[in-house]
Amino acid sequence: MFLRNMWYVAAFSADLKPGKCLARRYLNEPVVLFRGQSGVISALIDRCSHRAMPLSEGHVEGDTIRCAYHGLEFGTSGLCTRIPGQERIPAAANLRSYPVVERDELVWIWMGDPADADPSLILSNPEHTDPAWSWRPYYMHVKSNWQLLVDNILDLTHVAYIHANTIGGNASTHFGADVSVNFDGEKVTLLRKMPDSAPPRTYIEAGGFKGNVDRWQKVDYQPGTGNVLRVNAGACDVGTGAYEGKRDNGFMLLNMHGVTPETETTTHYIWTICTNVPKETGVPDRLFDQWYDTICEDERALEAQQRRINDTPNMKFVGIASDGAVNRARSLLETMLAAEQPRAAVPAA
Ligand code: FES
Ligand SMILES: [Fe+2]
Q1: What does the pLDDT average to over 292-308?
Q2: Against a cut of 0.70, is the pTM above it?
Q3: Which of 35, 82, 89, 292 could covalently link to 16 via disulfide, CB atoms 3.0 to 4.6 Å apart?
Q4: What is the pLDDT at residue 201?
Q5: Ligand 2 centre and the CA of 341: distance in Å?
Q6: Ligand number, closest to the Cα atom of 151
């Protein structure tokens, strides 16, 4: 299933230099993103109206894109602006365009009804432009359904097993965590506290901890503001006020996970990792490298799950206690999907 009336992270701003285009499939539709010389980004269906040549094979000139085959040109809104050798341009030559918004170094796309695309809904990610934070962007093409990825981030008990060698630490710490799931009708929040726990290797290197820590992980998922999960994780020395919000002397990590369906079984995983540890220490670079290894562990698990799901399409999942946030999210997405379906026709009397 795909939700169309939702903002998705399409790419990083840096992926689109002026005069360049990028071909990507979203929700099973071929799209070309291009940045004109004025800096404006556009998204059009990646199919020329003349003979279906992918426009991404063409060239960007000024703020238009020219088809590589017979030279039709299209403007930012999909309007066909030129057909070589003829004056009249039929309306049928125009292309579908998709609303795009560039914000916080991200390019967002709306695949649903353009009339419903409200940029004010989009979640902000201020760390990407705040000099107090170091950050790094990553793109992964994951061969799994997008909902498996949402599930992965909303059930962090997997950290103890999948990430035992990186950020995991002690399994009993994770299963003994003080976990709360909150749902306000629009947002699922998972909060895990691991007070007075031994920090994992990554945290010791990054935070310089000498003893136990008060550790937290908070995941927010509000798909109405974009299909993105934000994870705020970190630790402070025991008893220094981490759970009352006094975290300035602690170690903080923010992960933005953009989950953008490509097809039913493949996903654009567009994510960033940010930390408050100063760049000059050299810690962020080591941390980010290690974090990439961590996410690769997730990627391997997701792809293995998808292969097995393909083998056993009629088998269902069994629920366990740690699925609380996952279940909330899945039912929220189902509600949103139902709201997108056209109303059933009223039968004639
Ligand atoms: S296919 Fe694009 S101009 Fe002919
Ligand atoms: Fe993970």
Answers
A1: 96
A2: yes
A3: 35
A4: 80
A5: 33
A6: 2
Question: Does ligand 1 lie within 6 Å of residue 243's CB atom?
Answer: no
How many Cα neighbours within 13 Å face the side chain of 136? 14
CA of 49, closest atom in ligand 1: 2
Q: Is the pLDDT of residue 344 over 50?
A: no
Average pLDDT, the chain: 93
107 touches 264 (CB < 8 A): no
Report the nearest-CA residue for atom 3 of ligand 1: 70
Q: Which residues contact 347 (CB under 8 A, 6 or more apart)?
A: none
From 71, 86, 119, the end of a domain falls on: 119
45 found inside a domain:
yes
Tell me: pLDDT of 175 over 90.
no
Average pLDDT over residues 41-69: 98
Q: Are residues 96 and 174 in the same domain?
A: no
Q: What is the CA radius of gyration of the chain?
A: 23
Residue nearest ligand 1's atom 1 by CA: 51
Confirm or reject: Cβ of 93 under 6 Å from ligand 1: no
What ligand 1 atom has the least distance to the C-alpha of 68? 2
User: What is the β-pairing status of strands 7-12 and 213-221?
Assistant: unpaired
Ligand 1 lined by 72 (C-beta under 6 Å): yes
